[in-house]
Every structure is written in structure tokens, then in C-alpha cells.
Design brief:
Strand order of the largest sheet: 5-4-14-15-16-13-17
CATH superfamily of the largest domain: FAD/NAD(P)-binding domain
CATH architecture of the largest domain: 3-Layer(bba) Sandwich
Largest sheet: 7 strands, mixed
CATH class of the largest domain: Alpha Beta
Number of helices: 17
Number of domains: 3
Shape: globular
Bound molecules: flavin-adenine dinucleotide
Length: 500
């Protein structure tokens, strides 16, 4: 290594350059400027001419935590992004046509330290004294009845639906107020140091150079820095996730906003419905191997409700992950780094995880062990999310089109096979720390899609029949009375976020 390469590698990180101003770019700018803004020089480059992907409007509860960390006031945020509340996802036509279940953000029942609630519920079913699994989950019941209110001490677990472009604008103001600089311009070249391969600057169309020590690639599917410049490879997951295309649009609302995202399975993919305060976000996600673009468009447009307020726009994607999210002095966040289709609304969460890990490991100088740790951590979290999304496909009983028949033949990741088999045999789910989806999520989706365990844990047999009746009834009564006390979701949003 010559002196100049060594200099670059050992240089303290002072100037951070974020390439791209979509959700990923502005989330990174907001988090960095609010935490390390006093010691870093942060610049974000974005191009209005190129624009953003324009989707990504359903979230999961971890975003509530992220906003708390950044001291974002919820009412301000929800008013700015025309947000609504999300208590879960309604999966329609997934097990079979006409079937529906909700994967909610709530906990079902009460666990015993030695065994989860599902074991007691299952024994109750065998004895004919338990209701449906949904009767024991507050958030799930509230979602089914279109209700919501904030409760003290985090008494209800929720996430948001939001307008993605308004969110980027909201974070942009917040970041600029915290000292981040914004540069409008098209990146035409990424300059690197010949010896070390480190990125040294972004060259813009007007000839200006944005120099930096650490570069964050948030250029979306283009992956200008990590992919096109540094040539970091991509692991393709299309043998597990068949969809590679989407079409999105926005419509007027024809009914009150429901507090959940709808994911409706179709001929060769599925559609989303995301209700906001001022409109509904709609999209179809499909596999171009099993349906043509014209057929998908036809299926999509014919099922829309309300008036279309934006021409549908197509998105092509490839499911998978970058072999390294962090390589040399470049960290990829968002679509530049990985993509798992939005069935469980996890991409914004994964951006957030990338940012949190980067903040925790923020380097004085870049060191290989830390970079390796970052990459291993993110890869493991991503693979967990991938397994959870594949779960929905592998458990379907649909065989009505070539797409669903091909999915039935699919070989799934061994880690996922193990989890399903374990649940089928024992009714238990074991969670590794840092995994996003807790036991409750796995159970709701597995049972929602027809997997019933063969046995329950012996602890459930220790309770007498009478005690079990009392135990189950008490939980159900508490859930019912809590839900009865809630206002409708729409009424709550109207008073929580009154218009201008
Ligand atoms: P983009 O939004 O594409 O932003 C890229 C930025 O880079 C833009 O500002 C662009 O102008 C800039 N740029 C690119 N090239 C240049 C250049 N040469 N010069 C200057 N600037 C440049 N996630 C969820 O969590 N929930 C969902 O419900 C959800 N739904 C989705 C539905 C679909 C169909 C898809 C494809 C994704 C969905 N996602 C969802 C993912 C979500 O959209 C993204 O995670 C999120 O929008 C972040 O995107 P991004 O910032 O990485 O990329």
C-alpha cells in the first residue's frame, strides 16, 4: 500500500455524503444530523429530474421508536405526511380464495414463562371452550372493528401509513434545520482513489465535485455507488420470491380509512391498499414470468375503487441482497442495498436498522472488523425478513393458476423449513435476539394460513378445565371491553390531525 492509499484509509470520518434523497437518503440525513450533526459535515445530493421510486407507504411499529429516538413529534409528523394508523395487515385470498386473516402488531393472550399462550388456546380448542385466536388479541380485534385510540403506557402497538413523498419532504426540513446541506444535481460520475478504491467525490452534471470521507448510497435501484462504481455483487432471491414487477397508483377514498394495510392475492401476485387521510395508495406486485404487463394492468385497474388521481407508474425490481452493504467507504441503504417485496412492509424498517447499526458503529476511521460485523448483522436480519415473507407463499393452498402451482413446487430456505416443522410438531416458535418478527407474528401467520400444531405444551394440561375456561374468558372479556371503549379509527384521525 502506498502512502496516499494508507492516508485515505486512515483518514478520520468528518464529511459524510449521502447520494439520493428518497426515504432512505432523508432518513439517513435526519438521523445523522440529529445525532452527530455537531461533529460531522453532512451533505445530501438529490436529483428532482430523476425523482424517487414514489412507493413505500406502509410501515411497522419500529418506525414509532425511530421517531421517538429522533424526537419527532407524532402529531406534527402525521399531519405532515397525511398519515393514518396501521394495526396490522389483512391478508385476503392467501390461503384460498375468499379466505382472510389479519397479521396484527398485537400480542395474543398471556404467555406463561414456560409456554406461550397458543398452547393454552390450543388445549382450549381441543376441549371446545376456546373462541377464535383473534378473540384474544386487542390490536387484532380493534383492526377488525376499524377502531383506534392512543392508550397510556404503550397500551396499543401500532405503525403508520404515510405519503412517501411528503415524508421525504418532512425529513428534509428536519435535517436541514439540524445542519445537513442539500445539493440539487445529477450525479454523472463517481470518482475513486486508484490505489485504495475508496470513493473520493461525486461529480455532478454542472461539473461541481462533492468530496467526502464516507459515502452513503441511497440512489435506489440504480445503486450508483455500491453497484455501478464499486461492483459489489448481488445475491438473487428470485427462486424464493417470484415477483419482479409492480404498478402503483393513487385513488380517492370511497370509505373511511381502515387501520390496516390490505394485501390481496391475485392471479400471479398480489395487490396492496394503503388508506391515507387524503387518498388511497394502490399497487399490484406480480411475476412477469407468469402474467404479462398488460394482463397485470388489466387485473389491477379493474379492481380499483375510487377515482384514479395519478397515472399508474411501473416499477421493476430484483429480490435479493447486496453481497456487502458496506464496502470500502460506501454504505448502501434502501433499495440500493437490498429488496424484499413489500408484503410485510419491511423495507423502511431495514433502512432504519442500517442507520441504527451505522450510528452505533460510526467509525473514527473505517476498520475491517467493524465493517464485517455490520455486514453480518444486516445480512442476518434481512434473511430473517426474507424467510418471513416466503412463509406466506409456501403456506398457500392455492393451485388455481400456473403461478400458485409453481410456488407449491418451490424449495424453501432450510431455516424456514425448520421453523415451520418445529411449529407443526410442537406449537412453539423460538426467536433469536434481533430478529424482527416475534413469536406472535409467526404464530398469527402460520395459523392464519392453516398450520395447526400437532401437540401443545404439557404446561397447558396442568390447568384444570375450569381454570382454563376462566383464564381464556378473562382475556377475551378484557379484549372486548378495551375494544368497545375505542372510537372509530377515522374519527380519531380527524380529531388528532385536523386539517389546516
Ligand atoms: P428512491 O426512492 O428511488 O430514491 C433514490 C434517490 O436517489 C432519489 O432521490 C433519486 O433522485 C436519487 N438519484 C438516483 N440517481 C441519481 C443521480 N444520478 N444523481 C442524483 N440523484 C440520484 N417499503 C416499505 O417499508 N413499505 C412499503 O409499503 C413499501 N412498498 C413498496 C412497494 C414497491 C412496489 C416497491 C418497489 C418498494 C416498496 N417499499 C416499501 C420500499 C420503499 O419504497 C423504499 O424502501 C423506499 O422508498 C426507499 O427508497 P430509496 O430511498 O432507497 O430509493
Amino acid at each position: 500500500m502506498n502512502d496516499s492509499a494508507a492516508d485515505i484509509r486512515n483518514k478520520p470520518i468528518r464529511r459524510v455524503v449521502i447520494a439520493g434523497g428518497g426515504t432512505a437518503g432523508w432518513m439517513a440525513a435526519a438521523a445523522l444530523s440529529r445525532t452527530l450533526g455537531k461533529v460531522l459535515d453532512i451533505t445530501l445530493v438529490e436529483s428532482e429530474e430523476i425523482g424517487t421510486v414514489g412507493v413505500g407507504e406502509a410501515t411497522i411499529p419500529t418506525l414509532v421508536t425511530f421517531h421517538r429516538l429522533l424526537d419527532i413529534k407524532e402529531q406534527e409528523y402525521m399531519s405532515a405526511v397525511k398519515g393514518t394508523i396501521k394495526l396490522g395487515i389483512s391478508f385476503e385470498n392467501w390461503l384460498q380464495k375468499g379466505h382472510r386473516y389479519i397479521h396484527s402488531f398485537g400480542m395474543s393472550g398471556k404467555d406463561h414463562w414456560s409456554a406461550g399462550f397458543q398452547h393454552f388456546w390450543q388445549r382450549g380448542r381441543e376441549l371446545g371452550i376456546a373462541g377464535g385466536y383473534e378473540d384474544y388479541c386487542f390490536e387484532l380485534k380493534a383492526a377488525l372493528q376499524d377502531k383506534f385510540a392512543h392508550l397510556p403506557r404503550g397500551g396499543i402497538n401500532y405503525a403508520y401509513h404515510m405519503d412517501a413523498s411528503l415524508y421525504a419532504r418532512f425529513l428534509r426540513t428536519l435535517s436541514q434545520n439540524a445542519g445537513a446541506k442539500r445539493v440539487e444535481g445529477k450525479i454523472v460520475e463517481v470518482e475513486t482513489d486508484l490505489e485504495s478504491g475508496y470513493i473520493t467525490a461525486l461529480k455532478l452534471a454542472d461539473g461541481s465535485l462533492i468530496e467526502g470521507d464516507l459515502f452513503i448510497d441511497c440512489t435506489g435501484f440504480r445503486a450508483l455507488l455500491i453497484g455501478k462504481t464499486l461492483n459489489v455483487g448481488f445475491e438473487d432471491w428470485s427462486h424464493w420470491l417470484f415477483n419482479d414487477s409492480a404498478l402503483a397508483t393513487q385513488t380517492t377514498a370511497v370509505r373511511d380509512a381502515v387501520p390496516y394495510t390490505r394485501a390481496i392475492a391475485g392471479t400471479a401476485g398480489w395487490q396492496w391498499r394503503i388508506p391515507l387521510q387524503h387518498r388511497v395508495g394502490n399497487g399490484i406486485v406480480y411475476s412477469s414470468r407468469y402474467i404479462s404487463d398488460d394482463e397485470a394492468r388489466q387485473e389491477f385497474l379493474s379492481s380499483l375503487e375510487g377515482e384514479m388521481i395519478k397515472e399508474p407508474w411501473p416499477v421493476r425490481f430484483r429480490p435479493g441482497q447486496r453481497l456487502k452493504s458496506w464496502y470500502k467507504n460506501c454504505v448502501a441503504l434502501g433499495l440500493a442495498g437490498s429488496f424484499i417485496e413489500p408484503l410485510e412492509s419491511t423495507t423502511i424498517h431495514l433502512i432504519q436498522r442500517g442507520i441504527v447499526h451505522l450510528l452505533r458503529m460510526f467509525p473514527q476511521v473505517i476498520s475491517e472488523p467493524e465493517v464485517d460485523q455490520y455486514n453480518a448483522q444486516l445480512a442476518s436480519e434481512l434473511e430473517h425478513v426474507r424467510d418471513f415473507v416466503v412463509l406466506h407463499y409456501t403456506l398457500t393452498e392455492r393451485r388455481d393458476t400456473p403461478y400458485w402451482r409453481a410456488i407449491a413446487q418451490m424449495d424453501i430456505p432450510p431455516s424456514l423449513r425448520h421453523r415451520i416443522e418445529l411449529f407443526r410438531e410442537t406449537g412453539s416458535v423460538y426467536r433469536v435476539p434481533d430478529e424482527l418478527f416475534a413469536e406472535n407474528s409467526w404464530i398469527q401467520v402460520m395459523m392464519g394460513q392453516g398450520v395447526m400444531p400437532k401437540r401443545h405444551h404439557p404446561t397447558a394440561d396442568v390447568m384444570s378445565r375450569e381454570d382454563l375456561v376462566r383464564f381464556l374468558d378473562e382475556i377475551k372479556r378484557t379484549v372486548d371491553s378495551q375494544v368497545n371503549g375505542l372510537p372509530s379509527h377515522q374519527a380519531y384521525i380527524d380529531q388528532y390531525c385536523p386539517g389546516p
